[in-house]
Amino acid sequence: MPDFALKGRSIRLQSLRKSWEDAVALHDINLTIPAGSFTALLGPSGCGKSTLLRLISGLETPTEGDVFVDGDKVTSQPPSARDLAMVFQSYALFPHLSVAENIIFGLRTRRTPKAERLEKLDQVAGLLELSHLLTRKPGELSGGQQQRVALGRAIIAQRSICLMDEPLSNLDAKLRQDMRTELRELQAKLGFTMVYVTHDQAEAMTMADQVVLMNQGHIEQVAAPRDLYARPATPFAGQFIGTPPMNVFDPMDVQEFPVFAPYCTGSHLLGLRPEDIHISETGPISGHIETVEFFGADLLVTCRIGKAALRIRCAGQAQYIPNTSVSLGFDLKDLSVFGTTPTAETPPQHPKAGNAPCVFNLAKA
Amino acid sequence: MNKMSFSWDRALITCAAWALALLWVLPLIYATWTAFHPAEFETRFDLTAPLTLTNFSDAWVQAPFARYFLNTTILVTMILIAQIALGTLAAYAFARMDFRGKGILFSLVLVQLMIMPDILLVENYKTMRDLGLVDTILAIGLPYMASGFGIFLLRQTFMTIPQELDDAARIEGTSIMGRIWRVYMPLAKPTYLAFGLVSVSAHWNNFLWPLIITNSVETRPLTVGLSIFAATDSGIQWSVINAATLITSGPLLLAFLLFQRQFVQSFMRAGIK
Description:
The structure holds two protein chains of two kinds.
Chain A: E1 11-19, E2 24-33, E3 38-42, H1 49-57, E4 64-69, E5 72-73, E6 84-87, H2 99-103, H3 105-109, H4 114-127, H5 143-155, E7 161-165, H6 173-190, E8 193-198, H7 201-207, E9 210-215, E10 218-223, H8 225-230, H9 235-240, E11 247-249, E12 268-272, E13 277-279, E14 285-294, E15 298-305, E16 308-315, E17 325-330, E18 336-339
Parallel strand pairs in A: 3-8, 3-9, 6-7, 7-8
Antiparallel strand pairs in A: 1-2, 1-4, 4-5, 9-10, 11-12, 12-18, 13-17, 14-15, 14-17, 15-16
Chain B: H1 2-35, H2 54-62, H3 65-96, H4 102-114, H5 121-131, H6 137-141, H7 148-160, H8 163-171, H9 176-187, H10 189-205, H11 208-213, H12 222-232, H13 238-270
Helix pairs in contact in B: 1-13, 2-13, 3-7, 3-10, 3-12, 4-7, 8-9, 10-13, 12-13
């Protein structure tokens, strides 16, 4: 569908703040969304991600700060002047209109000539495989089909920005997986800038070029999915991404092990992914197995080390018995160090600098 | 035991329903009986009595019912259009807009529901006189055009329409009026139907206010025309009066019988008990 390809536009948010009388929803948001990128706004419910999307769309106006699209300030412009489309969580299809009428709703509002309307409808319906459903009412469609109609309404206008608010959360797991791939392909093919709100880390990690992790009205971290997983900037980022979450512990709780000694300043937290800890006889850390959970491919072992409890992911067929002692090891480059106070942002020694010496590098024996 | 008491309950309810229905339909039966029979059968029930339509033609020529019909139709249509237009706009504002004093204004609208219109007869008359509208059809309709009931009903319906539909239309650049016209009004159709039926039947039957504000054939609605016809006719002839009554209430009765299902359903859907 080459005539549907278009150039995405970039979005920049500058010191954006949104508050209602009694509550602050967003504090000082600064964010750049590159043109043509797929950006996911990820966070737990109530973190302000949907509010942020509504500020970008123009459905809400910010209390302070500005929204720029391609360098133009659009803060006080209505949604229709921002050249964007939006897909809602509930799909927001008009129940009294047929599928075709729903898709061309916006074209009608803008009085596009009928011939052009029909031509575009034809193209979009073909693209989304909706051609045989055009005369139906939304109520007669399955969830997946309704989702497609909502997509159709968003792309028919050929907007340079598409905003999506948890568009897949009402679909069943199987369909959600298919739609993920499809959405990503559609976005890559048409080239618009996608801003995608989700609370599902799997969606954000599999689809996005850039993940914006939010928590309590702040941006925690902006990074590509791989970097977000490998280098979480805050304990929240480490624990929100990954199942099971990253082990985050206070080095003071494990100070008897010399490897943690450099971090025992009282102003740092340490993070280790469950799969980065290995149970090994030569490991320098001794722990005590508390529980063992079997997940088929994986085995999740909870070990007490000093005063901290760490979860370790092992191969599913391994055998470990609770209430026994084990030795553990990890690669120092996998250790995340978080400052707990603003003055301690930089850890004393950054093992992630790349060429930091590996204290223990356990071969996976 | 339980089943027994339950069926007693049912039987009583059924009896009561029949009794009420009978009570309601009796005048109608009497009116129909007298209207279709010669005057001498007004108080005599005889199955073999001859049927006749002369009562209807007599009534029709003795009073300008055609004109009354026209007046009532104009009145009812005018009120309904104004009520829907004003009610829709007010209901949208109350349901979806934020403005200072919204709560107080809405409670004032609700207070209007509690005021008997009859209390305002004198005050309304004064207003109409000041406006120079006494003895016009507009004067009959004007006090009813901003209907608190209509605003309340439509606001309740509009509030059940998901905000996301409004947002979706806004993203597409639809104006407020466009959204009301293309999203809210089509989705509130059952409410409009229910309200329309209530409004039409209420103002078709309204009597006291039109009686006071009108003085001439050109403005009188059916109800007033009928009462004058019944009162001024020196020798009261029930068969002709009842024929006239049937003429005036006929269209509404017929409409109700035809739309009975929709009428009841729309009320169920609109959530009015």
